[in-house]
Amino acid sequence: MAVTAAGAAPDQTKTVVAELVPLASRLRYSQLLRLGMALTILVLAATVPQVLGGYLRSLAPVTLAYLGVAAIGELGARLLPRRSLLVIFGLLLIVDGAWLAYLTYLTGGAYSQVRYLMIIHITGVTLLASYRTGLKVALWQTLLLYGIYNAQQAGSISSSNLKVTGLAGSEGDRLAFFIAALWLATVGVAVFSAVNERELRRRQWDLEALHTMALELETVTGPDEVGSTLLQAVTTIFDFPRGVVLGGDGSRRVLAAHGLDVIPEALPRSDLLTSVSERRKVALLAQDEVRDDATVATLLPQVEHLVVVPLVAEGKVQGTLLVEHALRAGSRIERRVVNAVERFGAYAALALRNAVLLEQVQRLAATDGLTAIANRRTFEATLERELARAQRHAEPVSLVLLDIDHFKVLNDTYGHVAGDEVLRNVAAALACECREFDTAARYGGEEFAVILPGCSAAEALEAAERFRRIVADAPAEVPITASAGVATFPDHARDAEHLVRITDDALYAAKRTGRNRSTAATAPRVSAVGDPGT
What is the distance between the alpha carbons of residues 463 and 38, in angstroms, rounded to a whole number? Predict the structure, then answer.
């Protein structure tokens, strides 16, 4: 199930994990291994000739030729395109096997001490390249050894004349024993290499996924989008069947959810999640620990294994990540997974903090500092947008302008503190009376505006009367009244500027005719309803 949030869930990002060690570095290290093996052969043949049967004159040219081929391979790696590195690497491994097999043939076959270099070589290749490459090289070495042995037995090539004393068993038995030991060592190293390689690749995958999520977080702005991005990442990478992101410290608002059939609108208080947030550490909870928590039971019913990650940024909990881990009986969640999820949460916490701050800045820029409703700038932008939408759908938009009667007298008599309190109370009353899609704004001074989408002229006049009555009922040290002007698009105006001017004219008509009344703009006359002027 896809992640759900306030906005559209981001598409799953396909991440390609780069190779853990560049092929050029592997080739360079393998060249050092070749140099080491060649020098070992030359030094042993020169200083301890009995170990290699005294074949210095035969070993030296072959080994020097081998080093020449390695040098040519190094030169080709530097000059040829990078896509040729893999071919060069593979060809040099074939040459390695042929060189070691030939040295073994020269120095006693199944009794040769060069055999141990084969094990060292295969171990190095397995660690440098991969366990698959190590197994292939072991197979190549095996084929070469058996090929040489069979050729010797058939008389196609001469048998080694190295004299070995004190060793029991035929050459075939010793060769079989050595090959068994070779494969035992190869498989052992390959197994450990595969385990290490898998772990490294998993960690590399985690880092790549973290990097991808960080890039996605740079493009999102809202808390819901941050929560959706975080949840999409952790559920995809770690295969969590269900998960939720909650916003704020102890917040009951769901920012994003994954795997939930129903997202509850309201959540009960959670002492458990509050406790985890206070500790600011990841908590691994079992079924018996979350069974009695109402919030967890509401969000993730019948959850058995829960990972709770407080999203902490700048010392404050910005939210909480809850994910269900589908463990098998008797198993435990990997520490790698816990650490990785914690890192994901740390990145998301910073993005969540920035998103909250951005929301606050946008809210401050869009609202009036005194009354906490829309300011003049927001009013103008909203009116333009609503008129454009109404024009597309052939719907009316009405505008109501209200002015508190004799507000200057109130300010002069009771002071600006009392006047500010009246403005705040009037704004709160208008906001409560508006529909969800209406916009109440402070137009300037003691004047307020209400945009009424989809509202006809007659309905707007009724709404203005309701607004005027709730203003009169708003708490104040002295009784107050208000005058209202009403106009409708497209009945009275064809654009936003004209609509405001016509509505303002209707407002001043209401004030001229006695105040405490609502006046609708008409063509060519203005009609008024309401109480007598005060």
Answer: 97
